[in-house]
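Entry for the shared binder. Reason: the reviewer on the internal report wants the predicted structure included alongside the sequence.
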Amino acid sequence: MSILIKNIKELLQVRNTNVTIVKGDDMKVLPTLKNAYVLIEHDTIVEYGSMDDYYNMNAEEVIDATGKIVLPTWCDSHTHIVYAGDRTQEFVDRINGLSYEDIANRGGGILNSAKTLQNTSEDELYEQASKRLIEVIKMGTGAIEIKSGYGLTVEAELKMLRVISRLKKDFPVKVKPTLLAAHAIPEAYKNNKEGFMDLVVNEMIPAVSKEKLAEYIDVFCEKGYFDLEDTERVLEAAIKHRLIPKLHVNQFNAFGGVDLGVKYKALSVDHLEELNPEDISALQNSNTMPVALPSCSYFLSIPYTPGRKLIDAGLPLALATDYNPGSTPSGNMNFVVSTACIKMKLTPEEAINAATINGAYAMGISNMYGSICRGKKANLIITKAIPSYHYLPYAFGENHIDTVIINGKRF
């Protein structure tokens, strides 16, 4: 299958060489090409350029993009979209004054999701997650990381990861699976955290490794959940089983999780709503990607990740949704990009770089995803006719997407 997209008003994220990460001042630059075309063969971008240099090209399908903008699909590097049911009542509870911590302390939050998931069949879980995945692809997501963590038993975590494997097989979108082994202390281990840590390290991680169900390991490194010692123990065990670290850190408290992530060469450290100078220094001497989750801050009314400080310190930044039932029941990357501009004071250029190239880097796939480059995967968004790409974050309440192409095919 070949597709030619021509008369493109502006082609975004054009890279003549295969750039895989953008940092600091370079994030302010979004290379574009006006009045452009793109040629796709099978699942690959094979050519692009100015319509001034266009010659008669043969393609099975020709799309006229007059007045429209074309850009790479969003790369969402942090989600929990495999879950059962919802947590609508907790949403109402927060409106009525309960905090995230209050809800968790009375058996809600992650434990609520775990109980529901444990009582949901694998097929039903797959059906629910499939609907969510279809929705986010239609909203422009072309690569996605999906975590476990709502199982909290060996059997239920394996069930979640098998569902993720089915999604990876059945859908054209790029899926990267993560074992979030230490997400919360289950009720059965309420007074025996050490026993749960033994379960994670001695049973859960080896079982997942044996079935090759995950590429990454994650830990909720946070007060009241898993401390630095717990996190280090999980990472040590995971690395022996060749799982690459990605960490939840600094959502509510900053106490050394970033430095620990850097020590263990984490691919990313995510959340970072609370950040101190030591965290920034640690990241400056690493290849670890800081990831902001502004939809979570919006939904929970907590601080936003200080993305300006990170970028101004010469660091890269990625954006992701944190799609989950408790703190971010949305996988809309378009809203994430808008919120990063409005609340985190990122420029549109910085936000688009963070949601494409750097999002791909945070999944270890930026060599093939995240930019318009010859030889990369043909995962593209074609917008409706809009005034400029600045309009994408500006008009945050509108759906600007006309067409999504995944692996060289319309989705």
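Summary line for the report: The first strand starts at residue 2 and ends at 12.
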